[in-house]
TrEMBL record:
Residues 1-11 have a biased composition (Basic residues). It comes from bioreactor metagenome. Residues 1-22, 123-149 are annotated as: Disordered. This is Uncharacterized protein. The lineage of its organism: unclassified sequences, metagenomes, ecological metagenomes. Residues 124-143 have a biased composition (Basic and acidic residues).
Amino acid sequence: MRGTKVGHKSTSKNFNKSRDRKIAFTKGVRHMDEKRIQEITKALEIIQKRSPLSSTRAAQLLQEMKTMDKGEVEQLCSALIEAATKDPKAKIPSEELKILIEIENTLGARTQILKFRVSPTEKNQIEADARREMGESGDDNKGKPNVSEYLRKKILGK
């Protein structure tokens, strides 16, 4: 019989499935360092708790994280952070927003942090402060001040 091993009842097809499962397991989150796993888990828990729009996706990613590839987990987490920060119904306190921004920085993503939920006069004041503090180097490609970067620095205190 082709595909059988002497003394084993498994065929090569079943043997390959077992090997593939082992490869998938070693490719997964196990190759992330413990600190990175904790950061991503913390971010997903914040999103699950605070953002009604992204909470189900965050819960699903928390469950499936152990079987996924490291890059895929980081990419999905980054997308969820972006969706949660732009969610108009999300009530994220500044301390948790600071955590999300720090995690976002470690993931290497740069999302637009703020969808303005303030009055037009407050928005103009924030833009003026951003332009004054960051100067011309803080302008985005449209010539407006990069308010997201200004707020990121202000929240992180850097």
